Each structure stands twice: as structure tokens, then as C-alpha cells.
């Protein structure tokens, strides 16, 4: 079982353990980080472009690496 799946299962219990390298964001935090509206991120989640997890109380949580993965680096074209 992966650390992410184990964490998601543990989120429902009283013992909350997270892999040390995972940074969890709320929908609002992720929207601010990506400079998108929360509704846009909800659309991306519905379309399968972004993975989200349900946390305690049914609230969405997103991994920061998934939010950062929305962006791809742009390499400049060589000057001819």
C-alpha cells in the first residue's frame, strides 16, 4: 500500500500520519498557489486533470506537487 493511500485511510481515523514529503493544501490554498479560482480547480478535478482527496469532514485536500504539476516549464526557442 502506498504512503498516499495509507495517509488517506488514516485521515479518517484518530491517528493521522502523513509521509514527510507531502504538503497538503485546501482547495482555497491550492487556488491561491496556482492563481486560479477554486471553481476552476473543481472543474479540473471533475475532468481528471487534477487529483484531489477527501479529508476529515469531507473537505477536499490537494497535494502541492499535483497543483504545481499543472504548470509546465517553457524553454525559449533558439535564436536563428
What does this entry look like structurally?
The protein is of the alpha+beta class and 80 residues long. The protein has a domain at 21-71: Multidrug-efflux Transporter Regulator, Chain: A, Domain 2. Helix content is 39%, strand content 11%. It is built from 4 helices and 3 strands, in the order H-E-H-H-E-E-H. A hairpin with a 5-residue loop joins strand 2 (53-54) and strand 3 (60-63).
CATH topology of the domain at 21-71: Multidrug-efflux Transporter Regulator, Chain: A, Domain 2
Secondary structural class: alpha+beta
Task: Give a count of the beta strands, DSSP E runs of length 2 or more.
Answer: 3
Gap between N and C termini: 51 Å
Low-confidence stretches: 1-15
Supply the number of helical segments.
4
Helix and strand pattern = HEHHEEH
Provide the helix percentage.
Answer: 25-40%
Strand content: 5-15%
Shape: elongated
CATH 2nd-level architecture of the domain at 21-71: Orthogonal Bundle
Largest pleated sheet: 3 strands, antiparallel
Trace the largest sheet across and list its strands: 1-3-2
Q: Whole-number average pLDDT?
A: 82
Provide the gyration radius in Å: 15 Å
CATH class of the domain at 21-71: Mainly Alpha
Amino acid at each position: 500500500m502506498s504512503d498516499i493511500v495509507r495517509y488517506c485511510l488514516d485521515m479518517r481515523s484518530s491517528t493521522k500520519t502523513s509521509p514527510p514529503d507531502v504538503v497538503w493544501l485546501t482547495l482555497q490554498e491550492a487556488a491561491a498557489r496556482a492563481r486560479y479560482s477554486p471553481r476552476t480547480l473543481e472543474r479540473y478535478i471533475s475532468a481528471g486533470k487534477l487529483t484531489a482527496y477527501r479529508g476529515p469532514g469531507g473537505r477536499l485536500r490537494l497535494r502541492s506537487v499535483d497543483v504545481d504539476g499543472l504548470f509546465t516549464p517553457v524553454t525559449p526557442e533558439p535564436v536563428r
